[in-house]
Amino acid sequence: MNAHANPRPAVRSDWTREEIAALFDLPFNDLLWQAQAAHRASHEANAVQLSTLLSIKTGGCPEDCGYCNQSVHAETGLKATKLMDVRAVLQAAAQAKDAGSTRFCMGAAWRNPKDRDMPAIVEMVQGVRQMGMETCMTLGMLTEDQARTLADAGLDYYNHNIDTAPERYDQVITTRTFEDRIETLEHVREAGINVCCGGIVGMGETRADRVGFIHALATLPVHPESVPVNALVPVKGTVLGDMLADTPLAKIDEIEFVRTVAVARITMPASMVRLSAGRESMSDAAQALCFMAGANSIFTGDKLLTTDNAGDDRDAALFARLGVTPMAAECKVELAAE
Ligand code: SF4
Q: CB of 205 closer than 6 A to ligand 1?
């Protein structure tokens, strides 16, 4: 298999900030070369995982994440909804499967799920699993018991992003702490659920902050199995959207974004690195560079939770031009089991 042409790099959790900063500082071609080698050593060279994300409960969230239009603190006019009906969620999952997705991610705009919501959540997980897709949920903070309930239901992944560097956390969110995030991640790990954890760049941070963000992920005792790297989509009415609108910071430089992806790939070689929010405004060439830098997972469809996404047609056309194929579920299982 071409995936094993290079020796598989050691998975380390002892990265220093200096080492990570030095990777960011490499000449671009050297960085991409190293990232591509790390990628090929642990993953299929030209396969990209397709996941679909569904908002199962939109808006009205009491948290004040400065980037999010679902917060009650944002003035975006987004209408809050109740938790979706289980049947409607399963219908959407069936459509995603027909469109080629192998993972179905369900997101609810909550600070944390209430225990009364758990039976419906459990039914959703079980229903999607029965279709043969991997399941992922993002529901906010979890207690140990809730994490165990989700594990017993068969949940494959739990998404809980660290968002940004620890030292910058309170500039982005004030209603919870970085430590709160880590605590939920620990509950998820202890319950035996795979972790999906990344964050957002382009929030006006410095490169040192991006170093701190990757460092926080790459020094977790066990690396997240999935690492979503988002580029901020500045939405008017959100704190960050209003702050960054019409400034040169409104969109992260694409080369710097590719560098961030490459550093994530090198420091977390066995993880799936996912391009998430912000992909719709990226050029095809920038996305191609992200794949070269080791990104091997994307969200499909026209929408992420509430913001626009690239759309299936554009993705299919790009994949054809790049000779990239959707990753088969069996391939991931095989690699994960090795
Ligand atoms: S990112 Fe999640 S937790 Fe934060 S405001 Fe939005 S929905 Fe709530």
A: no
197 is catalytic: no
**Cβ pair 23, 266 in contact under 8 A:** yes
For strand 134-138 and strand 297-300, is the pairing parallel, antiparallel, or unpaired?
unpaired
Distance CA 228, CA 113 (A): 22
Query: Would you list the domain boundaries of the chain?
Result: 17-326
| Nearest one of 265, 179, 188, 201 to 227, comparing CA atoms | 265
Average pLDDT over residues 193-205: 94
Query: Mean pLDDT, to the nearest integer, of 309-313?
Result: 68
DSSP, residue by residue, 75-100: -S-PPP-PPPPHHHHHHHHHHHHHTT
3-state helix, strand, coil in the chain (%, to 5): 45, 15, 40
Verify whether ligand 1 is closer than 6 Å to residue 164 (CB atom). no
Q: Is the CA virtual torsion 148, 151, 155, 161 positive or negative?
A: positive
| Active-site option among 40, 103, 196, 279 | 196
Check pocket membership of 71 for ligand 1, CB cut-off 6 A. yes
Specify which residues 334 forms β-bridges with. none
Task: For domain 17-326, give its CATH number from 2.60.40.10, 3.40.50.300, 3.10.450.30, 3.20.20.70.
Answer: 3.20.20.70
The pLDDT tens digits for 226-276 are 999 999 988 888 988 888 876 766 678 999 999 999 999 999 999 999 998
Q: What is the pTM of this model?
A: 0.90
Instruction: Tell me the best of 53, 55, 56, 65 to mutate to test the pocket of ligand 1, counting ligand atoms within 8 Å of each CB and taking the most.
Output: 65
Is-catalytic flag, 279?
no
Q: 126: which 2 tokens?
A: 């079980």
